[in-house]
TrEMBL record:
This is Gluconate 5-dehydrogenase. The keyword Thylakoid does not apply. GO terms for biological process: fatty acid elongation. InterPro entries: KR_dom, NAD(P)-bd_dom_sf, Sc_DH/Rdtase_CS, SDR_fam. One of its GO terms (molecular function) is gluconate 5-dehydrogenase activity. It comes from the Bacteria.
């Protein structure tokens, strides 16, 4: 029997992480790099990407807007330039405009759906052909508590994240027979830019923690194991799933 720890070894793999300039995206890039992958970090803030690559000690970065579909051919070329075609893509880029149903604007709606839902699909679609040639690939989307729950001020965000859940299942149906698994992580409340308003309110933060089974909100390191599992050989027979990493928030 092979060493089970080898199942999580990403040595020789190439991984792309969007939204890598901060929060769970940055953490994802760091974890995959520590597990041996060559990571290409993507975001719009180049200075943050440069500091990330410096901290990782290896890897590369691409400053780009992943909602620019007309620029995808160029983006894929830039992604493949440092290490070749990627084996893993983690879609961590996201936005939450926090507009109530009565206040949602067309621009806010389109911006949310473009970044949270359309970009993960079209970037995956562009990277899948090379994964098919290798017979191995991992797609990890980011779902949310709002994939299945309705929160105040979250109609556009919730619609996009509910779409991520179904998109993940549809990706699995389309591509898993070629050795490409597609899964999603659904984080609970983690301290990121998107949830800064929540953590700035001690009472609200405490109420959220009390709604979990564990009794606390998430810490960045809580994403490490689930992400590594879904990006590695350990999850070879897992596809089309949304893994909630929420301390049991959705279990109550």
């Amino acid at each position: 029997m092979a060493d089970p720890r080898d199942l999580f070894d990403l040595t020789g793999r190439v991984a792309v992480v969007t939204g890598a300039s901060g929060g769970l995206g940055r953490r994802s890039a760091e974890v995959l790099s520590a597990a041996g992958a060559k990571v290409i970090a993507i975001a719009r803030r180049e200075s943050d990407l440069q500091s990330l690559v410096a901290d990782m000690g290896q890897g590369a970065h691409v400053a780009a807007d992943v909602t620019d579909r007309d620029g995808f051919a160029d983006l894929v070329s830039r992604i493949e330039a440092p290490f070749g075609a990627p084996d893993i893509v983690v879609h961590a880029a996201g936005i939450n405009t926090r507009q109530s149903a009565d206040e949602v604007t067309r621009d806010g709606w389109d911006q949310t759906l473009d970044l949270n839902l359309s970009a993960p699909f079209f970037l995956s679609q562009a990277l899948v052909p090379a994964m098919k040639q290798k017979g191995w690939g991992r797609i990890v989307n980011f779902a949310s508590l709002q994939t299945t729950r309705a929160f105040p001020g979250g109609i556009a965000y919730g619609a996009s994240k509910a779409g991520v859940g179904q998109m993940t299942r549809a990706m699995a149906e389309a591509w898993s027979s070629d050795g490409i698994t597609a899964n999603a992580i659904g984080p609970g409340f983690f301290p990121t830019e998107l949830t800064q308003a929540v953590f700035d309110d001690p009472d609200r933060s405490a109420r959220n923690a009390a709604q979990t089974c564990v009794g606390r909100n998430g810490r960045l390191e809580d994403i490490d194991g689930p992400l590594l599992f879904l990006c590695s050989d350990a999850s070879a027979y897992v596809t089309g799933q949304v893994l909630m990493v929420d301390g049991g928030f959705t279990a109550k």
